[in-house]
Amino acid sequence: MAAIKELIFTEEDGGLSFGDYELGKKTKRDGYEHDGDIYKVKTFSGITRLERNELFVYESVPGTAVHDFGYTEEGLEFYVEGPEDAQITIEGEEDAAYTVLVDGRMHGIQRTGLGGKLTFGVELGEGKLALVQVRRVEA
Questions:
Q1: Which of 9, 24, 78, 92 has the fewest Cβ atoms within 10 angstroms?
Q2: Are 100 and 90 in contact (CB under 8 A)?
Q3: Is residue 65 part of a domain?
Q4: What local confidence, expressed as pLDDT, does residue 2 receive?
């Protein structure tokens, strides 16, 4: 897989793909409709950010490409790639506990604060694609 040249699109299975970490300057696409919601993506080598209905959903520093981003019965799941390790922040519920699995390895249980944001690191590099799974747990 590679950076997403359309900036954002819907996969055949219904997942959302977005981001182009190869861009030298910040580029955005607004007004993309998916499952009744309106998405906006801003992306370039330094950051990738996704909003749904003008609310924060995903951000990575540096920029990444995200494939098959979608919600499942268990939580959130997507594949991510980038040229180097990335810090990812995603939306969550306020004051909730989540497990984060990267390529099947659990990174422990994390709690969100009042803003509901969950932040974790992912080891990436050219040609590496990581599967990220986020699950809400009772803690």
A1: 24
A2: no
A3: yes
A4: 60
What pLDDT is stored for residue 72 in this prediction?
A: 84
At residue 93, the 3 state secondary structure works out as coil
Beta bridge partners of residue 102, listed in sequence order: 105, 132
- Is residue 3, in this structure, part of any structural domain at all? no
DSSP for 108-129, written as a single string: EEEE--TT-EEEEEE---TT-E
Count up the domains in the chain and report the number. 1
pLDDT tens, position by position, 38-76: 999 999 999 999 999 999 999 999 999 999 999 888 899
Closest CA to 101 of 59, 72, 130: 130
Range of the domain at 79: 8-137
Residue 124 resides in a domain: yes
Residue among 134, 133, 60 nearest 96 (CA): 134
Instruction: Please state whether the peptide bond connecting residue 83 to the residue before it is cis, i.e. omega within 30 degrees of 0.
Output: no
The answer as to whether 39 is a domain residue is: yes
Distance of alpha carbon 39 from the chain centroid: 13
